[in-house]
């Protein structure tokens, strides 16, 4: 569970974490308008918001501090020496591209999009929903991620272990679904931000 008190930097400044950043950049984009005295770099806010919404859906980005989210857990991905965080950031996706998608990212993206409109279509409204009509709910996204980190990322991935087909094939569906959830939720957040601006402009 991700708690408010967990969201701080080493000097105990609040909101210095990925969930705090999502709230902050969402607020910047929502509150900015032509007459505002607030001076935000909106391009920067949009880029960082997109980046951090993606980040929070990667389970080890909210992994344990003690192992730096898996960065200090050295493993082998098949024959290649790497760390567990890199496996979840990159190696599972790269292996999937090579094994199932003819090394073509556009084919992988299309497959995930088909799952969103087909296999996961009944889940999309729940993915988009935020309690209390919040524009974004990163604490929820992070809570999902740490649960997945414990159940899937860290499981059977001890220091020095070799991760091969059994790990890859059982974790790939998790990775692809998190990519889909991140994309759907980013779209929902941006639609909410810009829809509110349209309503304000029409008022």
TrEMBL record:
InterPro entries: PLipase_C/P1_nuclease_dom_sf (IPR008947), S1/P1nuclease (IPR003154). Keywords: Disulfide bond, Endonuclease, Glycoprotein, Hydrolase, Metal-binding, Nuclease, Signal. Gene3D superfamilies: P1 Nuclease. One of its GO terms (biological process) is DNA catabolic process. It catalyses: Endonucleolytic cleavage to 5'-phosphomononucleotide and 5'-phosphooligonucleotide end-products. It is an enzyme of class 3 (hydrolase). SUPFAM superfamilies: Phospholipase C/P1 nuclease. Its EC number is 3.1.30.1. This is Aspergillus nuclease S1. The lineage of its organism: Eukaryota, Viridiplantae, Streptophyta, Embryophyta, Tracheophyta.
């Amino acid at each position: 569970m991700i708690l408010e008190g967990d969201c701080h930097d080493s000097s105990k400044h609040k909101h210095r974490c990925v969930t705090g950043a999502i709230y902050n950049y969402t607020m910047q984009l929502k509150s900015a308008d032509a007459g505002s005295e607030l001076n935000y770099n909106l391009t920067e806010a949009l880029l960082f918001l997109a980046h951090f919404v993606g980040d929070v859906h990667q389970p080890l980005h909210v992994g344990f501090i003690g192992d730096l989210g898996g960065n200090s857990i050295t493993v082998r991905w098949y024959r290649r020496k790497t760390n567990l965080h890199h496996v979840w950031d990159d190696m599972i996706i790269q292996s999937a591209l090579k094994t199932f998608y003819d090394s073509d990212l556009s084919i992988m993206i299309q497959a995930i999009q088909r799952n969103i409109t087909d296999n996961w279509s009944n889940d999309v409204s729940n993915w988009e929903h935020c309690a209390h009509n919040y524009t974004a709910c990163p604490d929820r996204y992070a809570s999902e991620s740490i649960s997945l980190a414990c159940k899937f990322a860290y499981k059977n991935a001890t220091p020095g272990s070799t991760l091969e087909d059994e790990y890859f094939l059982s974790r790939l569906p998790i990775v692809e679904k998190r990519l889909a959830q991140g994309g759907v939720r980013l779209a929902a957040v941006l639609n909410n931000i810009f829809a509110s601006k349209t309503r304000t402009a029409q008022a």
